[in-house]
Design goal:
elongated; de novo design (two linked rop proteins); 148 residues; mainly alpha; 5 helices
Length: 148
């Protein structure tokens, strides 16, 4: 277990909250008839990511922490899939989907890194380093896309 509320210091947690904000902003543009279908499902899936990171880091055993990290990863994949469908339905643009996909890729790498650190029983310092490298890569990709 890391200290109370210290999950807030994890880059993966902060990056997952950024994804929540992005998805919520995009969902506001969806048609009214989707408010209780795709929108509701997207909101639940995306908020599950930082929630499970926080819950997992509040657990004592590495096994339990890994379990919640894996749940967060599953929710991340759910968001990616649903945003892909939203693009196919014309609710978001391909460019908006590409930006979400870059965030998803970065978060996936950070979650995998955090999971690996917990599996190996190493400290938070290594998790932070892995997450930092993933965040830097994601930001570079986003800048590259924005400059196109």
């Amino acid at each position: 277990m890391i200290g109370k509320s210290s999950y807030k210091n994890l880059r993966v947690y902060r990056a997952s909250k950024e994804l929540v904000i992005q998805v919520y902003a995009l969902v506001r543009k969806f048609p009214h008839e989707e408010q209780y279908a795709l929108c509701d499902q997207l909101r639940r899936a995306v908020i599950s990511i930082p929630s499970n990171i926080a819950e997992g880091m509040g657990r004592v055993s590495h096994k339990e922490q890994i379990h919640f990290i894996e749940i967060a990863f599953g929710s991340l994949m759910e968001v990616e899939s649903q945003m892909d469908v939203a693009c196919d339905l014309g609710y978001i643009t391909p460019q908006e989907l590409e930006l979400i996909d870059m965030q998803v890729d970065g978060l996936a790498a950070m979650l995998s890194g955090l999971r690996n650190v917990r599996m190996n029983g190493n400290g938070e310092r290594n998790a932070s380093s892995t997450a930092e490298r993933s965040t830097t890569t994601t930001k570079r990709a986003a800048q590259s896309t924005a400059n196109r």
